[in-house]
Amino acid sequence: MNKPIAEHLLGPATAFASYQDNTAARIDPQAEARAQDAGARVGISRAHESAALHVAGAATYIDDIPELAGTLHCALGLSPVAAGRLLGIDLAAVQAMPGVVRVLVAADIPGTNDCGSIVHDDPILCDGEIRYLGQPVFAVVASTRDAARRAAALAKKVLQVELAKPVLTPRDAHAGGHYVVPPMHLVRSTSGRDAEGIRAAIAAAPHRLTDSLDVGGQEQFYLEGQISYAIPKEGGAVHVHCSTQHPSEMQHLVAHALHLPAHAVHVECRRMGGGFGGKESQSGLFACVAAVAARALRKPVKLRLDRDDDFMVTGRRHCFWYEYDIGYDDEGRILGAEISMVSRAGHSADLSAPVMTRALCHFDNAYWLPEVAMHGYSGRTNTQSNTAFRGFGGPQGAIAVENILDSIARRLGRDPLAVRRANFYGVKERNVTPYQQTVQDNILEPLVGELEASSDYAARRAAVAAFNATSPVLKRGLALTPLKFGISFNVKHFNQAGALVHVYTDGSILVNHGGTEMGQGLNTKVCQVVAHELGVAFDRVRATATDTTKVANTSATAASTGADLNGKAAQDAARQIRERLAACAAGRHGGTAEQVRFANDKVFVNGRELGFDVVVGEAYLDRVQLWSDGFYATPGLSWDRETMTGRPFYYFAYGAAVSEVVIDTLTGEWKLLRADILQDAGKSLNPAVDIGQVEGAFIQGMGWLTTEELVWHPESGKLTTHAPSTYKIPTANDCPPVFNVRLFDRANVEDSIHRSKAVGEPPLLLPFSVFFAIRDAVSAAGGHRTDPPLSAPATGESILRALGAVQAA
Ligand code: MTE
Ligand code: HPA
Ligand code: MOS
User: Is the peptide bond before 434 cis (omega within 30 degrees of 0)?
Assistant: First the structure.
């Protein structure tokens, strides 16, 4: 038998035993058995649908697909300079390298040389203008990957270029007025003022805070790098296995690059080894190059990036630089705010416009801002084109207001939690966001109150102060930060999904939907929804690869909407099959279709109990269609891009975290001692998977705000931190020794899938609490007299700089 190794060694149940720790929801093998009485398949903590394959190393990623005979390998020749013009390439030298079959340049692309997702400003291969150091200029196709890489490395020698001076920082881009999309402005005044009037309101407030903040970018660091495997098919068609969050977009980009209709391009992805936003748009370049090469050579071509090349070619989270001017009262309430945000967009637009939109729509975070003027600038720089990363600008928007409230509290000598509370959105009033959406599901007070109590916040605040009073070198810090995150794509038409459910005559079920699996557990949730709808055991249902020939015109699996959209679409498909089965069973056995019940692998009809497979078999004989499509479009959304108003979000997800740190004021080292988290996931479809998402997002976001630092050389524009040797992501060792993670169990007020809430991105904002705990500890070293000028990431250097400033003040 071809069983995964872990199952042989451990058995399927014990393979997950190591999940158990101090958090509330864990894989519980008995949970489903208990829930059987109620027939529920949702709301159950079950293991990821591929967990056994993951731990056994038997889950197939793109590079694990058995290679077809004749497969060739591709590598990219990258620009060694950040800006200039490409005058020529000595292709003969590259062509002469051992194993090289063909070298491709922009002119070899039969269709459009563009892989831009929204704005078409993103060349696949350099079109003459050199835009950043690392830009793909040519593609080598060779008999082995090693040969291709050795030849591609000649890029440093074979390019003739005319150098130009690169623009590298958001400040320089802003100073020169270089943007990838026009500046955005979002202004709201509850007293009818314009931006000028808001400035006057700020000036007239009892207190004023004027400051700036720098927050760095972040590499997705998906464990499986970017990869595409393109196979030529008859009649010029192509089949691309691509590690992507957005198969339909890959299909369109490849179709344009090859000048083919979409029906001739087949894109497939069973799973990714992580995406985190980095494969929402940026898998496109690799899909296109592999497809162009496969088409040119009529051979299968694989393009798998080396980690360093992945860093050098692709973009990541946008770093942001903020300048703000705030007016506030004696309670710390913000009366007026003006903020400019400048992001480092990189050389092309990519997703920078919707990222900035989400940043502007999350500056409010949990707080009501009566008078606010926001300005967003997406700076064009000669660097990799920045893109989606978990939170998609939301974290960058919200951290600014948290920094502001933290400063206000210090200046007033009040507890930061009290100042945050004073600014919370109201339930019936003070509840309209700057973009004019009314917050109808505010659970901030009960959620934060529960966490405040369970984390023992007040007593620990006193304990931290007592510790600091007697500890000259080590200082502790504590912070509680809340979050509110808008769920939906803020581009309305992306909020749709399709699914296909097949019931086979043996009663087994296959589901295919438009979402992609990147480790987040989407397929597990969708299978649970289908099993629940048809009243069958989870193991009857199997999810297959996302495939553009099965469900068409899909949206990216992004904006945390995967389960919301595809879960609903799959439920719709399963419901239709159930209704047909019910009608058939009632026709055969009596009673009405409405009375037929499906639960626990059984069908209850007119006082009889039949096996699900029996009813399916009968329906087949009665010529009933046993498969169905399903569709879903999120209701009630609207968005006006010009005025930046509407209802961009179906609902909000909430959460809060308390973190306690200790810092060493001599070295700048720090440690997270304890974290307590309460995250709203509505009525969770799978608490264990959701807790995993919360823990992962927390640690990942902590990396963004502390250790992960991107450094471009100030003259050459070379990204110098392009490997794990110089770019430090968190590890298991960085998890706090006390890590209490719980879900806030309350139904979504909106009719989401089984009243659950999206959980992929919102918890990335929870580690704000780590950053502000560090800021609190630094502040303590200066006697809380002045604001620490702490930038993110709070690396040892950043902490030491801030310490120097507060101690000198
Ligand atoms: N979890 C894992 N394990 N791997 C990932 O790549 N991506 C995150 C989040 N959680 C990611 C993840 C991002 S950026 C998003 S938008 C959501 O998952 C997407 O999946 P969902 O909509 O199904 O939650
Ligand atoms: N998240 C991810 N991708 C997107 C979004 C978003 O909010 N809007 C447009 N593309
Ligand atoms: Mo997630 S950044 O929306 O892919």
Answer: no
Q: Return d(Cα 100, Cα 148) in angstroms, integer.
A: 7
Query: Does ligand 2 have an atom closer than 6 angstroms to the CB of 457?
Result: no
Token digits for 190? 């509850």
Give residues (CB < 6 A) around ligand 3: 245, 277, 280, 388-390, 392, 558-559, 761
Q: Which protein residues touch ligand 1 with a CB less than 6 Å away?
A: 274-277, 390, 518-520, 522, 557-563, 693, 696, 758, 760-761
Q: Look at residue 268 and tell me whether its pLDDT is greater than 60.
A: yes
The one catalytic residue in 219, 452, 533, 761 is 761
Residue 327 above 70 pLDDT? yes
User: How does residue 20 score in pLDDT terms, banded at 50, 70 and 90?
Assistant: very low
How far is it, in rounded angstroms, from Cα 201 to Cα 372? 10
Q: Which two tokens stand for residue 323?
A: 């300048």
pLDDT at 4 over 50: no
Distance CA 98, CA 554 (A): 42
Known catalytic membership, residue 517: no
Ligand 3 centroid from CA 279, angstroms? 9
Q: How many residues are given for the chain?
A: 809
* pLDDT at site 34: 63
Give residue 137 CA to ligand 1 midpoint distance, Å.
31
The pTM (predicted TM-score) of the whole model is 0.96
Instruction: Please give the structure tokens belonging to residue 109.
Output: 């692309």
CA of 564 to the centre of ligand 1 (A): 13
The best mutation among 281, 282, 317, 355 to test binding of ligand 2, ranked by most ligand atoms within 8 Å of the C-beta, falls on: 355
Please, what is the angle between helix 568-589 and helix 612-621, to 10°? 80
Quick one: tokens of 796? Answer: 């040892």
- What is each CA distance from 766 to 92, 236, 650, 762, 795, in whole angstroms? 54, 49, 21, 8, 18
